[in-house]
Amino acid sequence: MTLGLNVSRETSERLEAYASLLVKWNPAINLVSKSSLADLHTRHFADSAQLFDLCPPDARHWADLGSGGGFPGLVVAILAAESRPGLAVTLVESDARKAAFLATVARETGIHATVIADRIEALPPLGADVLSARALGPLPQLLGFAERHLARDGLALFPKGATHQAEIDESLAEWRFELQKHPSKTDQRAVILAIESVSRV
Question: What is the full DSSP assignment across 164-187?
């Protein structure tokens, strides 16, 4: 499995170990939809890996909110283990069972990732250089999280589907931000919103 990336054998083995654990745990705690398991490498792994490509070269801390089954946070941590060993990855997941899964994958794959089993709203500011959230909530809510947990010059990366423009328009009533849209490599209707300089109106 290469995800369209030039990854080493060690990284590929880590991703395969992750996939095996996901298939094993999924029936008990519903980490991803059962229908998407058959297309796991594209729907979840490759979809997450494309966010890692947008990581600024000087970033030191990546925080993934509402990590769930680990997308994109665990994939980022696995890819960073070899190519960006100085990048600290924090995974925030309030569901204790899902947090236990995330910690198990980190341990079994030998990667360094900090798992925080708490609500996003309850955390002190994380000061992250990069903040990601996939399928967590509408953009206005995500911008509130970004305002709290991003470093001053940080970058938020939010994958969004076909209705992303409506979410952007809705957000402008309450928020100001700099925005770049990156077309998704795995879904022609989707984009990755790269957002900086978040502030309330």
Answer: HHHHHHHHTTTEEEEEEEEE-SS-
> What is the spatial distance between Cα 199 and Cα 175, in angstroms, rounded to a whole number?
6
Q: How many residues does the chain have?
A: 201
To the nearest 10 degrees (0 to 180), the angle between helices 73-83 and 96-109 is 20
Give pLDDT tens digits for 71-84. Answer: 999 999 999 999 99
CATH number of 9-200: 3.40.50.150
Angle between helices 139-149 and 164-171 (to 10 degrees): 60
3-class state of residue 4 by DSSP: coil
- Rounded Cα distance, 116 and 96, in Å: 9
In angstroms, the Cα distances linking 117 to 42, 91, 96, 101, 132 are: 27, 8, 6, 11, 17
Q: Could you give the CA distance from residue 31 to residue 112 in angstroms, rounded to a whole number?
A: 21
Q: What is the pLDDT of residues 31-41, one digit of tens each?
A: 988 877 776 77
153: helix, strand or coil = strand
Which residues, 6+ apart, have CB-to-CB distance to 31 below 8 Å? 22, 25, 68, 69, 70, 98, 101
